[in-house]
């Protein structure tokens, strides 16, 4: 039966469906101001606040949903756990929320999956293996869990049981393209680790093909369009930005958190660079923050064309808000790394917002870098990552853009090479700390990950002593990479 409140809730849901999120949030808040006992409406409000990036407001809405007796409270605890883990960097609170969800429903697989992922992020290998094993007992067709389980095991030969298990799962009719992709990347990694390189490469080719098939609506990489975008960026920032004037009232001061930006291609050593810096007592690891991409796709859209009409005062306000957000996420921290590799596209903006910013640009042998991207199960929206030729094209455009930034801001840009780091660690770390204005700390010779969370594909590599195993990895795939090598060698 219709009522004013149900009609209002239906209208709010339609606004959300149409992407009019702020209007939907206002509509839900209007209903809840009149009828605060609607627990499920508080849950829906929490979902929307999370989508627009107001995570504290989302947590409050979810808490109200729990107090009001929401149906399926385990889902609310799960969502709260995701916010704490992925956005607020409070892993202990995330784990508490997931445990509460599982106390309500021990068979709640999404909470178990998130718990296992969190255990991986925290470096608890045995705990994560046990949790993935528990999931597979509940659902043998949880293919993503099997893929993650395989990634935590060590294979020494092609006859290892986990390899047979992965092959059998890929062949099951129940495994759709997304499942085959996850399993295929895990299979490729297992075969690579035991030296079966030809089989590994074939597995990765199939996995990338399945990954693309699993997301048919994802944009394909358009080489000409990306070239035009790089051209736009170069035109939008033709010269070094003039120093900004006095900051407006309320803007960030020198006492506010100072970002250290780490950029480069994915799989170029950015996580290792961040973890080395995080060993310094003056630095906190921020991880892959989405603050700048949100800005670019939000109030600065369409970027970079919008910068032609943005005032210095507006840029100062945006820089102040960025720092304010850092202060909320990392209370008390003075220097925080923003390790978003593809922020290399936004360096012109970064230096307009923060004229004195230091940028660490991680680099690696090009073939190793491209191969590592092809071997990683990245988001399908990064369409270039699914094809070696596209990766090569993207790499050349990246190289072209970085040459432009280096010509303008070379004194504020450090090329931090992974291969040099692993071959002679101390001089590389000395240069890194000096560039960032940090005094020498012996602890910075080893990564910091052992005591904290790491939320990238390098989660296990950076927990090991620095090693050379990944340097020169492309030599095992020389035949398969010959066309790419010739393409990258072109001027």
CATH C-level category of the largest domain: Alpha Beta
Share of helix, binned: 55-70%
Counting H and I runs of at least 4 residues, what is the number of helices?
22
- Tell me the overall shape: globular
CATH-derived architecture of the largest domain: 3-Layer(aba) Sandwich
Instruction: Provide the residue-averaged pLDDT.
Output: 92
Account of the protein in words:
It contains 22 helices and 5 strands. It is mainly alpha-helical and 491 residues long. The chain has 2 domains: 4-214, Serine Threonine Protein Phosphatase 5, Tetratricopeptide repeat (Alpha Horseshoe); 226-488, P-loop containing nucleotide triphosphate hydrolases (Rossmann fold). Strands 2-3-1-4-5 form a 5-stranded parallel β-sheet, with helices on both faces. The chain is globular and about 70 Å long. The termini are far apart.
């Amino acid at each position: 039966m219709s009522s004013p409140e149900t009609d209002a809730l239906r209208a709010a849901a339609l606004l959300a469906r149409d992407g009019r999120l702020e209007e939907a949030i206002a509509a839900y808040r209007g209903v809840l101001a009149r009828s605060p006992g609607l627990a499920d409406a508080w849950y829906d409000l929490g979902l929307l606040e999370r989508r627009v990036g107001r995570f504290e407001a989302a947590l409050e809405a979810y808490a109200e949903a729990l107090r009001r007796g929401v149906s399926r409270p385990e889902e609310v605890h799960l969502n709260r756990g995701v916010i704490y883990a992925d956005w607020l960097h409070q892993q202990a609170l995330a784990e508490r929320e997931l445990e509460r969800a599982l106390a309500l429903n021990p068979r709640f697989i999404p909470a178990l999956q998130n718990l296992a992922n969190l255990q991986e992020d925290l470096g608890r290998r045995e705990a994560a293996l046990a949790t993935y094993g528990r999931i597979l007992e509940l659902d043998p067709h949880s293919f993503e869990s099997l893929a993650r389980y395989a990634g935590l095991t060590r294979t020494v030969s092609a006859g290892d049981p986990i390899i047979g298990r992965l092959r059998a799962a890929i062949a099951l009719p129940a495994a759709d393209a997304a499942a085959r992709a996850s399993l295929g990347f895990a299979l490729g990694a297992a075969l690579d680790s035991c030296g079966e390189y030809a089989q590994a490469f074939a597995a990765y080719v199939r996995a990338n093909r399945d990954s693309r098939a699993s997301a048919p609506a994802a944009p394909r990489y358009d080489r000409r369009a990306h070239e035009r975008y790089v051209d736009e960026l170069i035109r939008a920032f033709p010269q070094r930005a003039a120093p900004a004037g006095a900051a407006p009232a309320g803007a960030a001061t020198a006492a506010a958190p100072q970002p250290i930006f780490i950029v480069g291609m994915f799989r170029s050593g950015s996580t290792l660079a961040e973890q080395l810096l995080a060993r310094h007592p003056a630095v906190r690891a921020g991880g892959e923050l989405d603050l700048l991409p949100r800005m670019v796709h939000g109030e600065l859209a369409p970027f970079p064309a919008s910068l032609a009409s943005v005032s210095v005062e507006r840029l100062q306000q945006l820089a102040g808000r960025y720092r304010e957000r850092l202060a909320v996420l990392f209370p008390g921290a003075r220097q925080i790394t923003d390790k978003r590799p593809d922020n290399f596209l936004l360096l012109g903006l970064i230096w307009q917002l923060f004229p004195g910013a230091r940028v660490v640009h991680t680099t690696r042998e090009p073939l190793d870098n491209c191969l590592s991207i092809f071997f990683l199960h990245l988001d399908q929206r990064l369409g270039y990552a699914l094809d070696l030729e596209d990766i090569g094209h993207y790499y050349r455009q990246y190289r072209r853009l970085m040459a432009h930034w280096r010509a303008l801001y070379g004194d504020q840009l450090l090329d931090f090479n992974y291969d040099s780091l692993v071959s002679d660690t101390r001089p590389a770390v000395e240069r890194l700390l000096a560039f960032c204005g940090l005094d020498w700390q012996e602890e910075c010779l080893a990564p910091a990950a052992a005591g904290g969370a790491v939320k990238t594909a390098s989660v296990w590599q950076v927990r090991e002593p620095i090693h050379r195993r990944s340097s020169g990895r492309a030599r095992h795939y020389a035949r398969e990479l010959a066309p790419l090598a010739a393409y990258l060698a072109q001027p």
